[in-house]
Design brief:
Length: 206
């Protein structure tokens, strides 16, 4: 199991509020409660400010709120499967799968890498279906770690990605474009990008 996500950072089928600020507040308090942020209020303020600059909803009922904050002590990925779903600005409606990525200043490259890998998996219908069907927090952790290329699920997830990309073909193009926009916006927030290095891109089925 990686240090980025743990079962304690997974929430299943919960009502954590009716708007995105409530959901982000929930995540900030959860992360701080696990000792991974110094102050929930500081993390909440930074994440909400980031969300207000560019909405992080993407097609398929998904949202990827994220930020870099001085309050973060340990880079963290938290997941919530919401009931009811909450509007994060996607054109096709509210999100029931929300992924909160929190990094500290100076971790721009790793922050973008996690966001890019996760977004690339989330445009695949088999992956999101598995997340929605997961019965335990441990199941979600395994799936997410596989998408990130760590943990026991990494090999199986890579094979599934190849197969699903071939099966879906161009049907993921719209979701891929929306996911790419989230990553590009995050890259624009980074105060320092190594010279000659482009931010990570999203390609359907890649």
């Amino acid at each position: 199991m990686s240090d980025l996500i743990t079962p304690e950072l997974v929430t299943l089928d919960a009502n954590v509020g009716t708007d995105r600020s409530s959901v982000i507040r929930y995540f900030a308090e959860q992360v701080a409660g696990q000792g991974r942020a110094s102050k929930a209020d500081g993390l909440y303020a930074d994440a909400l400010a980031r969300e207000e600059r560019t909405a992080t909803g993407i097609p398929g009922g998904i949202a990827l709120p994220h930020c870099r904050s001085k309050a973060v002590l340990v880079p963290t990925l938290a997941v919530a499967r919401l009931s009811p779903a909450v509007d994060f600005g996607a054109k096709d409606g509210p999100a029931d799968l929300v992924f909160f990525i929190a990094g500290s200043p100076g971790t721009d490259a790793e922050h973008l890498k996690v966001l890019s890998k996760l977004a690339r998996s989330l445009i695949r219908k088999d992956f999101t279906a598995s997340l929605r069907a997961a019965e335990t927090s441990e199941d979600v952790v395994r799936l997410v770690e596989g998408a990130l290329g760590v943990g026991a699920g990494a090999t199986a997830e890579a094979a599934a990605a190849r197969n699903d990309g071939v099966a879906q073909g161009g049907s993921v193009a719209g979701a891929a474009a929306a996911a790419a926009a989230v990553v590009v916006a995050a890259a624009g927030d980074a105060k320092a990008t190594p010279a000659g290095q482009d931010p990570p891109g999203i390609r359907g089925g890649a």
